[in-house]
Amino acid sequence: MADEKQETTAAETAQAPKKKINWKAKRLPIVIAAVVVVTVLGVAGWAWRSTPEFCDQLCHNTMGKYYQSFENDTTSLAYAHKGVVDNQCLGCHEQTLGQMGSQIQAQLSGSYDTPLAKESYSNEFCLQSGCHSGAGVMPGATESSTADFSFDPHSDYHGVQQCNTCHRMHDQSVFTCATCHQVGAWEGEGGVPEGWTVQDLGYDGKTGAVPDGWTTPDLFEATVTQ
After folding, report:
1. What are the distances in angstroms from CA 5 to CA 13, 14, 16, 17, 79?
2. Are 207 and 213 spatial neighbours (Cβ–Cβ below 8 Å)?
3. What is the pLDDT of residues 26-46, one digit of tens each?
């Protein structure tokens, strides 16, 4: 009798159907979870792409110099603008996805020159609302922050110049006026402004004053990516 009962129990156990997982019921939660994960990763990646770390890690061979001048070189204009652009390269370097794709392709294929070609920005870009327009740095003697200098480099005597004629973000800024003018060399060129130093201008043994940390057109050399 006991043997028959054991055989019956074993038979019932063997014949009991396995419980199937209802994937249809679980499909929606799985899809929702996948969408959430992809969205979070996409948003994080999109935000990361505007940071200097993205540029440095993805294109270190070409971007090393620009990363260092933005992150670590306290004498560079790029470093001085970190707070203004919220530590984001794209605060100035506005790009489309197509442009980014072309740059990545150039990086992978090695089809680029070093140092990279200088990017130029118009005065309108630099003087837009929220940037230098509120700081009094405008071309033209009457609006210039250097209007009180005996030699005003922002004067429009030679016409309104582009800001990046002198101001370089990732390299030494260049005192373009030194091509002709020897500031502080004699009375007609005005005295040496505070914060300027007299140095060799790089041609014919002439000397003149330039802003501290700046160079002249004849002495300028773009630094190579490191």
Report:
1. 12, 14, 16, 20, 86
2. no
3. 677 777 888 888 887 777 666
